[in-house]
Structures
1.
Amino acid sequence: MKTHDFYYDLPQELIAQTPVEPRDASRLMVLDRSTGGVSHHHFYEIGQFLRPGDCLILNDSRVLPARIYGVKEGTGAHVEFLLLENKGGDTWEALCKPGKRAKEGSRFLFGDGLFTGEVVGVREDGNRLVRFEYEGVFFHLLDQVGQMPLPPYIKEKLQDKERYQTVYSRETGSAAAPTAGLHFTPELLERIRAKGVETGFVTLHVGLGTFRPVSAENITDHKMHAEHYYMPRATAELINRTKARRGRVIAVGTTSCRTIESAAQREGRFRESAGWTDIFIYPGYEFRGIDGLITNFHLPESTLLMLVSALAGRERVLAAYQEAVRERYRFFSFGDAMFIGDLK
């Protein structure tokens, strides 16, 4: 199967630059997994498509305000740092622009001296290892000086950092938001629970590999980035209960989906688990955990579009995307949503 098999034409003006208000006012396309039928709604109507006995599994990862700007000691040169992953203690892996100003041994001031950082290593891929020195709690300092690491296709400045967080986020560590969850409000979640739909949480810290394009001609030659996940015992038991009563397990977002499917492959029956996953889901994959998916509209030729196509069929998904373009849906991180499931 070729990467180009997942191409569709998207007008640039349909790429959402800002979130809608309120969160659940975004539009919702519903795709019947069994028939390919499509209908149009708003996200606050999502409860109509959920049944008592179903469960929603949400990713509670919280985005780190990981874009920080440093001033180089001695020269005053400005360098942008994008923190990717904590490597232990106060050392982080980071992307730096321009990289030539961030050689090993270089020191930088952040936030007018609120904390400092030293480049202590350069990886083969060009990423830097940066060791920070500070007083207090590092995450609190980042909240003061850091900016949200919005995807490159978003050009507008985000006015409120919390609009790139889900209302249930709590485990800090992502370099990008699990965006399918951005549509939920606390009130909507309460209405869903009142209907008899249980909710559970997993944690998968989203890496920047989410935005890495597929460069291989054949999709099977693509190597996925690895991300760390955790499935708590309570969530594993919820999934087992739901399956035992023949309810549907609905993943909120591709990150929740990848966590559930990774756990299913490793454990069979669900139980508390943690680890790194580089699972790549594309058409032909046999789902073992999820029965439905709430997701946003994804980039052409992306691994996320391939995952959605594995669940609903490539032709049906591309036809639905073409309809979304005709109907002027908003695409990508701050865009509209899609629910894929069996509606019988």
Note: The CA atoms of residues 109 and 116 lie 5 Å apart.
2.
Amino acid sequence: MLEIVVIGAGIAGFAAALALWERGAAVSVVEAGRPGGEATGASAGMVAAQYEAEPSVKFRLGVECRARYPEFVAKLEELSGQALHLRWDGILVANLSQEEHEDAGVAVRWQQEEGLQAELLDPGQAAELQPGLGSEAVSYIWLPEEGQLDSQALAVALSAALARTEIRLIRGNSVVEVLSRNGSVTGVAMADGRTLAAERVVLAAGAWSGTLRGLPRVLPVRPVRGQMLRLPGATLALEHIVASHAGRYLVPKADGTVLAGSTMEDAGFDQSISEDGLRLIHDGVSQLVPALAGLKALERWAGLRPLSADSSPIIGPDPELDGLIYTTGHGRSGILVAPLVGAVVADLAVSGRSEFDWKPFRPDRFAGSESSAT
């Protein structure tokens, strides 16, 4: 059996590990904390391919991934016994200026030309879909095909699903170095001094991906802090995700609570809550759905998104180190792209081929990413 080590048990690492196991590989997953305990569980759980998208290969990746989500969630729910509450609520995106309104018209047209559902609504039409919207919007983009799941339930499901497979999960340890000899990976070294032998290594360590020793290149992935609030249910029933172009959003959950987010902060590996970040979120709530503005948060937290230098994922084999394969730098799209990217990584690891064109996301596309192994 092909021996493979996956570094990281967030949704990216889990999806790759599961697909590798399904293809007959012997898989070990090394995770410093708990599966899904970082960016995966800290997210709002949106399965959104069209929101804030531009016509690009990244956009088409997201659309294809979204189409695979029902099958992926059904498999994960069966393995874990955990309900993930996948819903296709749709997203209303507020255009808060005339410029945003004009840009929205362009976005709606090109997305319709791509065969997707998108519509520009006036405030009255939007209010019929979702009562209680703020009064500042010039118009709204309506994206009915967008969805969400319970990301906190997802984090719990990852551990339970792994336990139902032959995948070996090593928790409470971390990989500090990718080991290699003569241009090929030989395994990994862990923080406790132990090593694991492997013929393939999948790097899915999220915001920490670039900190490992032994990589053949500088990996331009940095942590970007995103803060979140959970608001209690209110007399106003939020039936759809409501968002702005500034990255603020309100996501109604199955238990009646509402997740309010988020920020994009270059704060290094600092996961603390900042008053400035919370103020931005509260301002967004007031602007989007004023009835929710006075509610006291039940929870608040922050997570670190792994963002690449060009904001697109890093996917595929390293051209200089045989056996090293990347799935990182997913930014805010880690949950969205997991089903397809996990399968692509598994195909590349097992057969060296994938039907999906991953090359636009190849790891050596960055200037200055050349060899830097120590």
Note: Residues 87-147+223-308 form a domain with the D-Amino Acid Oxidase; Chain A, domain 2 fold (CATH 3.30.9.10).
3.
Amino acid sequence: MLLYDIGNTNIKIYQDGQIKSIKATEDVSFAREKFYYICVNALYHERLKSLDHAVNLAPFIHLDTGYKGLGIDRAIVCKAVPHGVIVDAGSAITVDVMRKGRHMGGFITLGLYSFEQSFATISDALIYETNENIDLDKLPQNTQDALNFATFQAIVGGIDAVRSDLPLIFCGGDGKKLVHFFKEASYHEGLVFEGMKEVIKESGC
């Protein structure tokens, strides 16, 4: 089974249990064999429609939710986790709550890189690099730690506010930088693809 997760920055490809990532550029070559995909990148929509062997999973995703305008990337990871809190930490960080197969809602916040860029627009003195080893139990004593403290405290606090008694699962490129702030949390690199497999299984497409 060949699966494509097409984002705005990167394209992740799953085949035979292996995952690889390539840059989302105009000259990307797609496989000539049958593949399934989800796509949030407008650059490729028309091109993919012209490929008879490319199956867009978007029309086959059915999620029990009252949320209006839920993105395809969020919906697909929710299909992989029927009961839990899913944190997809990419360019933006999305947090979605699933309880017994129903999507209860969720929220979106800035990704780690966006936090860095936002502070830098205020002052040159606020330029910093993300440090996921910041201690959130200690009040910062320098500007670098202060910025990291604020960044991670905002993200961690938001997740804690909705977690309740549910399992906590991270995915996305920056998920590994966030997971260690929580007890009994896990990181799953291929969560999107697990959701895609579930949709294929349910729909028989």
Note: The longest helix spans residues 143-163.
